What does this fold into?
Amino acid sequence: MLADGVHRLPSAVEAKRWGAGEGEWFPFRAGGDDEQGVAALADPRWTPARGVVAIGLRTALSLLPASEIGLALTAAHLVRWRRTSRFCGICGTPAIPSQHHKAMSCPDCGHLAFPKISPAVIVQVTRGDQILLGRSRRHPRGAYSVLAGFVDPGESLEDAVRREVEEESGVRLRDIRYFGSQPWPFPDSLMVGFTAVCDGDGTLLNRDHELKDVAWFTADSLPPVPPKYSIARALIDDFARRRGVDPATVPTWRRPKPPDR
It folds into this structure.
């Protein structure tokens, strides 16, 4: 965020001019001009330059224009990957950037470590005019979202949808359909969205107690839900729209405000 109140990502030239301590810079392909193809690993001791306010990624996503959200998500994912891939997982030798791949390369045994992507499913489950939402311990007070979870080894995406929903709510599903996807670097996910219909009476049973609460809601009585930049919100807005409710009227949960300038 700039001192004039404008919320946008800095160009590579601006960010390098600010000085990121002992930070490391590396290129990636994210569309746009060359200055957009850069992510940074900044020294954690770095102090923002005058006129610049550093804010967290989740806060930034709610402020950035839509055209820059994908760039921020990509950079965040790559930054974390570089931080967690500094040594070869085979022999422990310090790794270096590969000259031929988007990977970290071991100069000793030649092992390549590509960016880690963890597939996860997220699903809009409906029962007539109701949607199934869960309240995580990580959510703001009173806030809910659609159910989600990571894909286990050996599972198809559809199998993961069935398992996660049944574990967290006891609800069995039918008519599972693909909705869309979104990169989600918290920490390194690819969120794959689905819609599904409750198969049965919808009696709720929180089997694994991962969620604090699960409940059915109608479109005109939704609790606070995730911000607009998330696929979770896209799934909820889709439900509201198909039930004749303007998504603009759906309450959004509150995130911490950016620090004062």
Observations:
- The longest strand covers residues 173-184.
- The CA atoms of residues 6 and 101 lie 36 Å apart.
- Residues 29-36 have pLDDT under 50 and may be disordered.
